[in-house]
Amino acid sequence: MTVMSFKRRRLYELFASIEKEFENLCIENIALRDKVEMLSEQLLMERGGPLSGPMPSGARHLRSLQQLAQDSVETADGQSQSTKGSSNKTKQGGGSQLTQKIKSTYRLKASTSRIVSSFKTSALTCAPVARYLGHRDGVWEVSAPPNSAVPVVATASADHTARLWDAESGVCVLQYSGHSGSVNSVRFHPSQQLVLTASGDKTAHIWRANPLASVAVFELQPKGQSSEDEIDSGERDENDGGVAEASVLRSPVLQLIGHQGPVVAADWLINSDQVITASWDRMANVYDVNTGELVTQLVGHDLELTHLAAHPSQRLVVTSSKDTTFRLWDFREAIHSVSVFQGHT
């Protein structure tokens, strides 16, 4: 859903709520007016004539009710009417005022309907076009190459694997099994055939996306494959019901260590010479992609980190945490700065 369609839907909901509340107020005021007029007529019949002379306490109470009802209608209409005059004049004025109120209500309703209808969009029909079967546990994240026309998607799963899929056919073309814990995040390199994964085994891995020439999803160079070229072509996973046959990769190009807790997310920084990871140890670590060395640790969150994202064109990173805050880290200057955002409870 786009931002514009979300805003339109939200405005539609707000206008509908306002219209409903106004209609309820109108109905309540009409009911109160009818009840007061009925009681007034009953009192006139019992007294045998118009209200005159000293009023008993019951009549004074009824007159107070009449005044309260008229004030309520006047408040809803935004008008100020005189309450002086006889009982007949009061009823005539009330009837005219009630008619005016109904007319005003329907004018507002018609106007609101025109406004709301202008935000309505044509009905959209959505249907699944492919199913991606193979994971044996929950899928935590899905991503696609940011600057590629190749129809491929990646998934990260709690079954300790990350998988690459042909987006059009739904076929798994590569399974990465190098982690010993849940794979929580998967991100493609902006320009190279590399994938970054974060795992509950306290590490992040960089591995080469090479589903081999048997599947024409990537046109990859053979050089720079994983450190041990440990790829089994056409291996069938016996536990997936024979749904897919895929190459299985077990060794990364680079393993990033240093966290003391599960790594929940990882992303490439601009220029892709560094990556950043977020962990339950309350730290965000920045690593050098060429050496795997820990460059710096971002300290400040009071509880476990839950997510992070790097800006695609600026050296900016945002991290979120269970401490109800998110932080914007600015690496554009030599001296790094951080902004803390609060408000969630």
Automatic annotation (TrEMBL):
Keywords: Cytoplasm, Nucleus, Repeat, WD repeat. InterPro entries: WD40/YVTN_repeat-like_dom_sf (IPR015943), WD40_PAC1 (IPR020472), WD40_repeat_CS (IPR019775), WD40_repeat_dom_sf (IPR036322), WD40_rpt (IPR001680). Residues 227-240 have a biased composition (Acidic residues). It is found in: Cytoplasm; Nucleus. It holds the Pfam family WD40. PROSITE patterns: WD_REPEATS_1, WD_REPEATS_2, WD_REPEATS_REGION. Residues 69-99, 223-242 are annotated as: Disordered. The keyword Repeat applies. SMART domains: WD40 (SM00320). Transmembrane segments: none annotated. WD repeats lie at residues 132-175, 176-207, 256-297, 298-339. GO terms for cellular component: cytoplasm; nucleus. Its main location: cytoplasm. This is WD repeat-containing protein 37.
